[in-house]
Write a structure and sequence with these properties.
CATH topology of the largest domain: Nucleotidyltransferase, domain 5
Number of domains: 2
CATH superfamily of the largest domain: ATPase, nucleotide binding domain
């Protein structure tokens, strides 16, 4: 059975989903939609769409983003704070990144990667 990693980012105005092959971390699918302030419905739609595209797969889902925590709690799905998620992705993807700036829908974040602990 194919194993998938599904990340869902619920922001202030949009929901983004990314589906990766768990073994190779190859991007298999992504989507970006406005949620029109109905974040839960948007997440459920994204999950349903992924389930239709990848039937009979074993999927691990994790949510992040400014609107994700209450949705994750309601669904019993793991949640990771978005600055932490971005920090992990930066450390994993780029060897020499020092600083990253993210401009979101409701705020901006700056991450100083040179002071982050190494990934284990």
């Amino acid at each position: 059975m194919k194993k998938l990693l599904i990340g869902i980012d619920v922001g202030s105005t949009t929901t983004k989903i990314t589906v990766l092959d768990a073994g190779t971390e190859t991007l298999l699918y992504s989507d970006y939609r406005r949620h029109h302030a109905d974040q839960l419905a948007s997440v459920l739609f994204a999950i349903r769409e992924a389930a239709e595209r990848f039937p009979d797969c074993d999927a691990r889902i994790i949510l992040t983003g400014s609107g994700a925590k209450p949705v994750a709690e309601a669904a019993g799905t793991p949640y990771i704070q978005e600055v932490v998620a971005n920090s992990i992705a930066l450390k994993k993807t780029y060897e020499t990144v020092g600083t990253a700036i993210e401009l979101g829908g409701q705020d901006a974040k700056i991450i100083f990667c040179d002071i982050l602990p190494p990934l284990s």
